[in-house]
């Protein structure tokens, strides 16, 4: 892991014993200082250098000799290093002593935000894909306004942040290093819903930014487009026995002329209405499903109706606070050995 010395503004590399460090969470803007820029004399003239300068100042004031900043601590010209960094990033935020969340579009204020419809609640920081894992993973996170004045801590704003993000407060108040264990209490559908309204610059990153939230590692293949999100779901199917991954609604659904769909979603946006889906109260872990070379293999209970051409299968998940309900997926047979879900 490469860290920036807050006194010398020089990078140092650590392998086994990583010292305590602060970490920055922010949204990228123009003229960020990269790994290569730090070796050049003009890097202090770039607009993005202010982020480095202020982060180091905050860290020094808090007693930390090192900080981690994504813009300059990763050599993005190396695909191998970038892949390792993205697969490690959730843990880097989890292991940081403190996270400074810089909201560049929030003007200084002397009052603590209380409304969802406020500059704080509408900040771009709450709309980007990468900042989701940074919000969840950081055990201690403090928000800062555009002039680097403190706004408040994540813990003190947990109720408001929950309203902004639709993330239950239980996942926002953890001060321990066991956030990964805590997140596993949320269903796959619920975790996907947290990213349903977030955006990334590159299509693939909407999948890669979720790796840590599901505790997964996956090779990065920039250029694969939406296939990245399908690969993420395939990895989830291999790792978890949680059928809520199939509890989603198409973002392009046409009730007049419905298009048959597969069992896996196209994007996190398909889970926008699935934040309330949990495992069924009588959940049985005996149901196997897997990804094979012919597609998804799964055994489910089927409901057939003489009045309809389609059949339905029941998933072992339910809406929260609806113990007598189950989620069903409508099926349409497309060949002798193949069906589509809709």
UniProtKB/TrEMBL annotation:
Span of domain Heterokaryon incompatibility: 21-110
DUF8212 domain segment(s): 227-255
A UniProt-annotated Pfam family: HET
Stated name of the protein: Uncharacterized protein
Organismal lineage: Eukaryota, Fungi, Dikarya, Ascomycota, Pezizomycotina
